[in-house]
Amino acid sequence: MKNNKIILVLNGRLFNKNKLIKLLKKYSTIIAADGAANKLIDLNIVPDHILGDLDSIKKDYKDKYYERLIELKDQDLNDLHKSILWLKKRKVTEVDIIGLDGKRFDHSIGNFSIILDCISFMKIKIFTKHGTFYTVDNKIKIKGCKNKFISIFDNSKNNKISTKNLKFELHNANLKKLYEGTLNFCLKNEIYIYTKKNILIFISN
């Protein structure tokens, strides 16, 4: 599994049917976190693995796809956290995610906090309705950015972040608060970000 292109589908807001199917065709392994399996199977998309405490899956789907079910019982962790740790145990170091947002706001904040904790060991890309989150480790060049908004989130201590081609450039900056790197703007098609430690960035559509 560690060499596969993997996407984790959560039970939040997903793209419309056609856009979702087009996206999922790019992946060799599709993992659904608990109730997200209902949405996928309703669209005739059967995930390779269904993870979680399995309390939200329709009984018919449980019975039909029981061989794909993997019960993760830890009630102290939500399905996102359990799924990422399950992947880590299987030596997976990179995963894309969809469905992170779109439900209760407190749930979304909790999920975002989990992502910030996990980017130290997992390269994560998150697709949302309004844009895409990327994990940056060391440096990244992203194309197609001109006139898009960008935010940079850093949960580490004593980091140094630099940027190129943003409205408000960073030069070996240490972002002490999560909001300090938000609400920036891409001035050119290609942007560059350099960091000593893993960070998370968001670029709008």
Notes on the structure:
The protein has helices at 17-24, 36-42, 59-64, 79-89, 105-118; strands at residues 6-9, 29-33, 49-52, 69-71, 94-98, 123-127, 131-136, 139-142, 149-153, 161-164, 184-185, 191-195, 199-204. The chain has 205 residues and is α/β, with parallel strands linked by helices. The protein starts with 5 loop residues before the first strand and ends with a strand. It has five helices and 13 strands. A ten-stranded mixed sheet has the order 4-3-2-1-5-6-7-13-9-11, sandwiched between helices.
Name the helix and strand elements from N-terminus to C-terminus, one letter apiece.
Answer: EHEHEHEHEHEEEEEEEE
Mean pLDDT: 93
Number of strands: 13
Biggest sheet, spatial arrangement of strands: 4-3-2-1-5-6-7-13-9-11
- How far apart the termini lie comes to 30 Å
Q: Beta-strand level of the residues, as a percent range?
A: 25-35%
| Helix amount | 10-25%
Please give the largest β-sheet.
Answer: 10 strands, mixed
Unreliable stretches (pLDDT < 50, length at least 5) are: none
Question: Quick one: overall form?
Answer: elongated
Structural class: alpha/beta
